[in-house]
Amino acid sequence: MKRVFKILKISIILSLIILLFTSTKRDERNFNISKGLTIYADLFREVNMFYVDDIKPTELIEKSIKNLLKELDPYTQYYNSKTKNELETLSTGKYAGIGCVIGKLDSVVAIMQVKENTPSQKAGVKAGDVILSVNDESVKGYSIKKVSKCLRGKSHTSIKLLLKRPGIAKPIIKEFRRENIQMPAIPYYGMIKGDIGYINFSKFTNKSANKMRTAILSLKRKGARGLVLDLRSNPGGLLYQAVNIANYFLSKGDTIVSTKGKFKAFNRALKAKKNPIAPRIPIVCLIGRHSASASEILAGSIQDYDRGVIIGQRSFGKGLVQTSRDLPYNAKLKITTAKYYTPSGRCVQALDYSHRNEDGSVGKVPDSLKTKFYTKNNRIVYDGGGIRPDIKTKLKRYSLLSESLIEKNTVFKFVNQYLISNNPTIDIKSFDSNDKIFSNFKDYLLKIKFKYNSDSETLLKQLEKYAKAEKSYTRISKEIAILKNKLSHSLSEDLLKNKQEVKRLLAMEFIQRSYFDRGIIQYSINNDSTINVAYKILKDKKKYNSILNK
After folding, report:
1. What are the backbone dihedrals phi and psi of residue 402, each rounded to the nearest 5 degrees, phi first?
2. In the chain, what percentage of residues exceed pLDDT 70?
3. pTM for this structure?
4. How far, rounded to the nearest angstrom, does the alpha carbon of residue 195 sit from its chain's CA centroid?
5. What is the pLDDT of residues 436-463, one digit of tens each?
6. DSSP notation for 356-411
7. Are 126 and 113 in contact (CB under 8 A)?
8. How far apart are CA 232 and CA 211, in angstroms?
9. What single string gives the DSSP state of each residue in 299-338?
10. How big is the chain by its Cα radius of gyration, in Å?
11. What pLDDT digit, counting tens, does each position of 138-164 carry?
């Protein structure tokens, strides 16, 4: 009995020591935080009072907040009372404005795209219109960000635009009202090549699951016997929306994602709560480098349960969960509170923000530290680097000519000029076979003396510059001349060599003017090699099943 009391006494003493140590460590931490904040407040007061020039207190404080958060990860962000609407836009996909995309066109800001069923479209604003003023305030010399701020405002407020339209001598005035603009979570869905359904899914906002349900049920009614779910440009969004959408394909009770954080409140397993609406339809999920966060939760759960085939490139690798916290004075903090794990137990986070390099940069999780996990059918999958596709496809790269045409907005400018005196018939399926427009574009490029340099030519120019600076040019001038001659290219020859690619750029610009984003997606489906791979796999049941049962 004495021995028992002695052991009990020792246990109590050890517990008290541990409690005291923990309490001391916690108190020391709290003291250091309090000490630091006191020093910061006094320092700021001294700077405000005695610095030789007047300071801008609000700007300085916000800069210090942003610099503090930079030490964490890029997803932990501060929003003041003026910018908190940006956070709402991220979660809802909604903002108050006029519904267009603006950009720099040479030295001016112009309308680059008009979105469908928005105030801009209804008011007759067109792509190519140069913005001269907003509500009688000249925007000459304004940045894109500053013009965008002028265009946005509260819903139902009036806006007046003074625009310079190609082909019209006098500026035109458009007066209308701003509205709440809802960016579509699913810009397009439909059937491709008979009985295969296709859903282009762009973002996980607060209504995404409802939109996805509508799309799936609609495609099933149309006779879809396979489904292509395109997440290649989906950066993520709300976690619970990913869970709800995964539930459409996975069985009730299946764990879709688990989260683990510092506090127990953030440690939870999110399961499918309902019976699926599409439990057996074969699925191909397309992912790419820009598929992140909630997209990876959806693709990861489909892969881990062997519910569908994943095709494309490795996804972005964001395995972090953010939570919105209220701050004083109507400000907000979006903070990383947990990591998420797919059903097999893997975290797809690719960058290690907790261990920074000496220069402040962060590195990727090395292959040597990546761990094997297993799907329901015992296929091997890995953590630490995004979702790896079951079938990898090559990322399409434009030719140097096409990249230069895009970078310089040359196709956009040509279409603006062409539409002044022409009214072409736009057919999504056959427009890129229009040789007349291609011929006109070729003449346009020759007329404006369009020039571009290859990477090799650019490097050769740099070599020539350095050689002259180092006074060695005379010695190698003959060799440089020979290289110049060999690297020179003919615009006509390059256009002929890349004819089909250039025709597709022209087609997309014309189609966007008439059919908006949904038209671009419809057109792209017919020319997308990855979608073609997905279609073939869904039509070949033997191949589809063999991939999921390796």
Report:
1. -65, -40
2. 93
3. 0.87
4. 30
5. 999 999 999 999 999 887 667 777 788 8
6. E-TTS-EEEPPGGG--EEE-TT--EEESSSSPPPSEE-PPP---HHHHHHHHTTHH
7. no
8. 18
9. HHHHHHTT-SEEEES------EEEEEEEETTTEEEEEEEE
10. 29
11. 999 999 999 999 999 889 999 999 999
**Residues forming the active site:** 293, 304, 318
- Of 164, 71, 199, 181, nearest to 121 (Cα)? 181
Report which DSSP code applies to 56.
Answer: -
Structure letter (DSSP) for residue 148: H
Query: In whole angstroms, how far apart are CA 304 and each of 107, 295, 541?
Result: 50, 14, 20
* Residue 446 burial (CB count, 10 A): 12
SS3 513: helix
**Angle made by CA atoms 417, 418, 423, in degrees to the nearest 5:** 135
Could you tell me how far CA 13 lies from the centroid of its own chain?
Answer: 56
Q: Say how far apart CA 160 and CA 137 lie, in whole Å.
A: 10
CA–CA gap between residue 458 and residue 449 (Å, rounded): 18
What does the DSSP 8-state code read for residue 449? T
Asked if 154 contacts 178 with a C-beta cutoff of 8 angstroms, the reply is yes
Q: Which residues of 477-508 are buried (b: 16+ CB within 10 A; e: fewer)?
A: eeeeeebeeeeeeeeeebbeebeebbbbbbbb
CB atoms within 10 A of CB 509: 20
- 228: tokens are 């292509």
Strand 172-177 versus strand 158-164 pairing type = antiparallel
| Surface-to-core class of residue 285, CB atoms within 10 Å of its CB (0-12 exposed, 13-18 middle, 19+ buried) | buried
**CA–CA separation, 168 and 66 (whole Å):** 46
CATH class of the domain defined by 188-323+337-395: alpha beta
- Which residues 6+ apart lie within 8 Å of 399 measured at CB? 494, 497, 498, 501
- Rounded to an integer, what distance in angstroms lies between the CA atom of residue 451 and that of residue 12? 83
Q: Rounded to an integer, what is the distance from CA 383 to the centroid of its chain?
A: 22
**Residue 467 CB neighbours (<10 A):** 16
What is the amino acid identity at position 387?
A: I
Whether the CB-CB separation of 384 and 370 falls below 8 Å is answered with yes
For residue 25, what pLDDT is reported?
65
Q: Please, what is the Cα angle at 313 between 312 and 315, to 5 degrees?
A: 115
Both structure tokens of 390: 């079951």
Closest CA to 269 of 280, 277, 260, 282: 260
Cα–Cα distance for residue pair 309/360, rounded to 1 Å: 38
| Distance between CA atoms of residues 231 and 91, nearest Å | 18
Q: Is 281:256 a contact under the CB 8 Å cutoff? A: no
Write out the two tokens for 89: 């836009």
Domain ranges of the chain: 94-182, 188-323+337-395, 400-454+489-533
Q: Which residue has the tokens 């091997």?
A: 380
Residue type, 518: R
CATH architecture of 94-182: Roll (2.30)
Using alpha carbons only, what angle is made at residue 293 by residues 204 and 200, rounded to the nearest 5 degrees? 45
